[in-house]
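User: Can you predict the 3D structure for this chain?
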Amino acid sequence: MVQPAPLQFLPLPTSISPSFWHRLTSLKLHHLGLDDKSVPIKGCYSLGRTVHDKLTGDSVGISGSLELDEGSFDLDVGDGTSAPSPHRDHFVLRGVLRNYNTIEEFKRADKAKLLSDLGDQIWSAIRHPSPETTLADLNPFLMITFADLKKYRYCYWCAIPALVQKPGWEIVEGWRKCDEPALEQIDASVALLSADGVTAPLHAFATFWARTPPEERTLVFNDPSSHPTALGWSVRNALTFLAHSPSPLDPPVHRLHIISRREGKTLSCVVRLPESVEEALTVRPAVVGWEKNDAGKLGPRMADLAPLMDPTRLADQAVDLNLQLMRWRILPSLDLDKIKKTRCLLLGAGTLGCYVARTLMAWGVRKMTLVDSSTVSFSNPVRQPLFEFEDSLEGGKPKAAAAAAALKRIYPGVDATGVSLSVPMPGHPIPPSSLESVRADVIKLDQLFEEHDVVYLLMDSRESRWLPTVMGAAKEKLVINVALGFDTFLAMRHGLPPSSDAPILAPSPGSPFRGKLGCYYCNDVVAPQDSLTDRTLDQMCTVTRPGIAAIASATAVELMVS
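Assistant: Here is the predicted structure, written as structure tokens:
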């Protein structure tokens, strides 16, 4: 007589798609922030299958795994339960994810308690099932993570808790393959029952088997295992439920016919409990389930996505990281999308233009156009951070184009354009021979104003700012003016005329100028005059303290952001 063999179970490994980590990154940055509460997720597993190796002629078993991807966070809105899997022969498990804020918190987490708490939850569902409790409640899973969003490295550990039945089930009739007619009937029944994703409550077992002879009680389950003599992990708690169910079954389930439904090779066996378990009804069995790592030991795993990511996309996400972190504590109301979509026109690509462009890029602005008519000189690269020594060779490259190219080298995701253009200035007569070119410049400048939301005045003379100031007021554009002295600087936002689309700020509630802000020329008695002719060398060059331009530029950009 063949001795009964203990029934064995094959652990269900996890298989995590990179899209899962991208979704977790977005969830952490945009929604969770510092909140480390548990988040409901779902995973799917497929049937174990056997394939034929054409090279060796052998049959190779491929077990299913718990698959997590970007859709794992998509749950039904109402009760938090997951929808049925859209793929046939893919079956949903519900779980929770807890993401810790630091790696130290992840390491200090009491893993034994986390698993024990989930075991208590399963045991409570077995011993005290509610009318809504189903088999899905017996197979929850747990995932703990730490996401290093700067390096795109994710430390994680998954657990699928299983109660350890003692004494365990034993195989009394060995494994055999189901015949084709029985297999077709089983597949048809499973397809019919799984069509709407509805699972019967646990208390239905007693009703269903009430008049079924003990030797005919059969459990069919979707088995992710491909092992020839071991069942999948997902059936363990179901068997524990049958052994300890409080529902009256006469006689109790101590013998059971199990059909392991697999792809291509469905197996069946008969198992039994070797002795009564009545004395253990009130004691929760031990719980196991933490997944082993790649070294075959109990411990977390590491997913490093940086080598897999496109460098441009990696930079695109990293650029916004610091800004997103501002919203966690300091500026939760910061509208980053609005800043990102703002189109900025920079008139002047010198010292101020270079610093403003770099600061705008740091604030997440993606679209900017730089306008300048001069070329890079040898004195520029040390003061203007977008230029290099090579830009000043052979007469110098056009400043606007060179600055735009430098911005794209720094961050390929920026949409930067350089335009060589002269702005007409009051006090500077236009020769008849230049009328057509000046007219073309004005038309181009007018077009640029129409295409942008914010205009920065960053030129190196006072009169060159006059025409853009008038155009900005006429077109109701937000104009920000920056000017440098040796020991002072000016950063101001020009006022906007009354408009339904333009915000109106008043100096004070009782001011006669309520609803109006001034501009760079509001205190002038006469129009700007020529300030560029008849100047000494120290007047022709912008003489300022090194570093003051960076301060003024940062202040100007913050005026826009605020």
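The longest helix spans residues 311-329. The domain at 335-561 is CATH 3.40.50.720 (Rossmann fold).
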